[in-house]
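Handout, page 2. Input:
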Amino acid sequence: MTLRKKIALMLLILTPLVTGLVVLVRFEKRRQPATTVNSAPKATPANTAHEMASLEVELKKNPTHPPILLRMAELKRDKGDLQEALQLLRKAAEADDSNIEAKLELGKALFEAGDSDGAIAATKSILDKDPQHVDALYNLGAIYGNIGAAPTAREYFQRAAAAGPTTESGRNAAAALNVLNQAGTNPHAAAVH
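Output:
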């Protein structure tokens, strides 16, 4: 097996793991200050370009492989190309309707792009299959909180805190509920950052 094939195989194996870890913290990282230290070194533009080229080669072999699409979308988002990232995320979500990571990321990217309605629809589609999905519940609370819909944000945060009180999203939901309760009737003070 050539070195190039070995690298491609390693990417295929490691991409779902890395994507899964990134998905868990991505929304909070974009909305609030980081609470954990990322021990991985920052990717240099040359490494990112090389990784993107490798992913594009792999995508040609399997055009609907969600882990490749998710990683490419992440690289595009990091580079500031949100529209291209959205296309990749839509493709990943359509390729596998049961891929929750793709739907979570699509919802987050849609919100970043200013499409709150699209973000809500993408995230709610997760709840159609799993009404207690703590990350989707938390993300919906954060979206509604950020658009100033405090009562609806409160509802989703309560559901998230109840669905996963020991998970990061459950704990974040409980903390957001405290912010909402302290904000009283001022919905803008309750927005999750």
